[in-house]
Amino acid sequence: MHSMIAEAADPAAEVAERLWRAYAPYRRGRGTSGDLDAMLAILVLAAFVEAEGRPEDDFAKRWRRASAEAAVGFSPVADLRGALQGAARRPGFPLPWSSDLDLGSGPDDAAWMTAFVAALDRGPGFGEVAVADVCELLLQRHAAEGALPGGEFYTPRGVADLLVDLADPRPGDRIMDPACGTGSMLAAAARHLAERWPVSDNSFEAYAVDRSNVRPAMLNLALHGVSMPQVELADPAALLRDGNLGRADRVLSNPPFNQRIDGWGERQFIAPAESSANFAWLQLVWSQLKEGGIAAVVMPARAAWAGGAEALIRREMVALGAVLAVIALPAHLFAGTNIAVHVWVLGRGRQSRPVHRSDSVILVDARSAGGRSSERPRVLSGEDVDRIADRFRLWLAGSGEVDEPGFSRSVTYAELIQNAGNLDPRTYLRKEGGPSLAADLSAMLADFERRNRETSELGAELAQVAGAQDQLAQDGIRCQNLLLKDVVSGRSTVGGRPVRLLAGPSGSLVRAQDYVEAGGVPVVMPKDISDIGFIEDGIKYISEQHAERLDRFRLNRGDIVVARRGDLGRCAVVGEEEQGWVCGTGCFVISPPDAVDSHYLAAFLRSPGAREWLDTHSTGSLALRTISLEVLGMLPVALPDLGAQRSIGEAMARFDAHERRLLEQLAMTRDIRSKALNSFLAR
């Protein structure tokens, strides 16, 4: 398969690709949670030896011995650990020695570390490449392969660069990320500063929501030139309750979406719904800014237009002058999800606002930005970032024309308030008039041609994926045979939540009169499920307040929603976009434990064997078969090791994405046919 890393076609990409190829064969069948930490620690050590190591230094000698041992297939772990300890005692090493820095390898780690160090010792070396770029490319690959620790997003480089350009940190600034993930945002800030001024002039303050992200974030920042970076595990509610607020010049963050957070304590705005904490995150970010400070935050698109309490908070934020800009970005920017996001730019106090536009917000619709190859994530280019950031800077400077039909517009507070505080750029940036039929058809044909090329590339990739699965089957896969109820039994948790095998709410809990117009919380019914995802056309909604009362039925990323009637075995995996939706009547929800891959389990439920078993054990008429929760729990499940599950699940997810793409192209073909006929008849 053509590698994402190789696309960059530069020395750093060559090194990163070589390292990943050395490591990848050792992922299957073993726990890999600490592998990223060890990789980055080895990179930190190798870069320091290259830059500061002298032939007589003990840590340099031990590094050379580790490399020589790895080259002939012996474990380098003991010498790596000794070299790391020795280097950490040397002035100038970017991290203090602690147990957190230790490689801490288990019995299964020696093999991959041997291959990794041997690959690292082959040219080009770190004297010829930027180690920060190698680090970024490995993080990107871990995210693409689903190998990053859970909890917080990995933020793609283009998105991180955009947020940094919008906030524009300066020398001496205190820069903060209250949900730092693996450190992508602050690493981008360090790159931004290094191009202009010494990074050491700035203070970087990082907090991780997920414990497993503390160490990789610290190592990532060290590789980006941040000396002695401090990354702390912090409860976001504790940060808000901290009396030491208003201390950051710049805040950059991509916090977890729609994550329930209890105990927010004192609030600057109206109390947000705790089950949907997007506005609590915005509030936390704003509260950390000092007078004149600016923040850039990634938010789900729904936060810009959601009703209820969230609309009240938005209006208050606008009236307070806290919102400077909202920028709509395209879908498919993040690995593993097609969710579209917005960037909110916040400011605190008059000093953060333009003098001549103090009563307005700039809205930018950049949904068409970013190139995309096949089904890989869309990538914001440097040109995309510059175009968006330049428009914001022009608005902030208060000079020049910032309005561009269909792309950007400065909207007054009065107009925003008239629209119930709606901050969705699409509401205010519809082009007047519109293109001619001929121009519209020409644009559609160009897009159709591009999609055809991408689909052809994807088809070639899928052939390789199918070949890999065939080889996996020929090699033989050992499976445990468990009942579904046993797969989800015990006290295991997923991201702090218990695993579940749960039937949706009864009809008395969600009645026909409870549904509201679009803008509430979607409720998933059997008709809204297909084997390639959720169908939003015709989906029904309930109010946020009603959804809070049904909290036990709300969906989390990685859950599987299964139809209990009709086409048995029909199910879909919940992604970021469906986070916080409600499982409706007529469905089951499965929250698998960490040892079970959601996409594999969904693929198994859709398999002919599972569907035949469910059909045999169902009740009802031939036209409408039904299964009970008890019957579903008795379904026999073939469960291979986690590595094989992920391989199969990823392959099936790729085929699902390809099918969705083909359906989109079919709809586009019909639309083009209609427009071509209309264009001919209009002549």
Q: How would you write the strand order of the largest sheet?
A: 3-2-1-4-5-7-6-8-9
Q: Average pLDDT across residues?
A: 82
Q: What proportion strand?
A: 15-25%
Helix percent band:
40-55%
The biggest beta sheet reads: 9 strands, mixed
Q: What general outline do the C-alpha atoms trace? A: globular
Q: Span between N and C termini?
A: 48 Å
Structural class: alpha/beta
Task: Describe this entry's structure for a reader.
The structure is a single chain. A nine-stranded mixed sheet has the order 3-2-1-4-5-7-6-8-9. Strands 13-22-19-20 form a four-stranded antiparallel sheet, with helices on one face. The radius of gyration is 26 Å and the shape is globular. It is 41% helix and 15% strand. It has 683 residues and is an alpha/beta fold.
